[in-house]
Specification:
Helix 2 (31-50) runs antiparallel to helix 3. This protein is α+β, with helices and mostly antiparallel strands. Strand 6 and strand 7 form a beta hairpin. The protein has helices at 3-9, 31-50, 54-81, 119-124, 147-170, and strands at residues 19-23, 83-87, 90-95, 101-106, 112-116, 126-132, 139-145.
């Protein structure tokens, strides 16, 4: 039943949606762009001191600028653009730098939530949280910091939303039949 229909019928709309967590990928993915930035800065300083011709210095500076933009700035902006928001009703995944993508999963449907960790992720305290919806491709939250805590929070929120659904279902008497929202 939609929110407008609930207001019209006099039924309570339920608790408001609240944000439980906002998550980004582990910052470890920015290690390579940081190393590229350091190497480009060192290489550029050396090349500007060694190269005698102005055109050579300008060419090296232009190549360094391209490396910084494509090797450092774009990966950083892509990391900033990717975000997962977990509320008490749904999971919202936003990603993409130039083409934005948004995906939502309702917690009331009951999903299978699993954690997968490689040895590198385990060393840094991160992991992949896989949310299996059953009907479509599973949603994988890659490289999430503290994946066990994220898994426990999602499972707890699913239990709460399932309890709300079961309580609403229990409000119907056993002998009643509902057809198209009427008794």
């Amino acid at each position: 039943m939609s929110r407008a229909a609930r207001r019209a019928s006099g039924q309570p709309a339920g608790p408001p949606e609240r944000v439980v967590a906002r998550i980004r990928r582990h910052a470890r993915v920015l290690t390579l762009p940081t190393l590229v930035l350091i190497a480009v800065a060192g290489g550029l300083a050396y090349a500007l001191a060694v190269l005698p011709e102005l055109w050579q210095r300008l060419a090296i500076a232009g190549a360094a600028a391209l490396l910084v933009v494509f090797g450092c700035l774009l990966p950083f902006l892509a990391w900033l653009a990717g975000r997962v928001t977990i509320t008490n009703r749904r999971i919202i995944v936003r990603s993409g730098l130039f083409v934005r993508m948004r995906r939502e999963l309702l917690l009331s449907r009951g999903y299978d939530v699993a954690v997968r960790r490689t040895w590198v992720q385990g060393a840094f305290g991160s992991g992949d949280v896989r949310i299996d919806t059953g009907a479509e491709m599973p949603l994988v939250l890659h490289d999430v910091p503290r994946p066990g805590l994220v898994q426990a929070a999602i499972q707890e929120l699913m239990a709460e939303s399932g309890a709300d659904w079961r309580a609403a279902d229990r409000s119907i008497d056993d002998g009643d039949t509902i057809v198209w929202g009427r008794r």
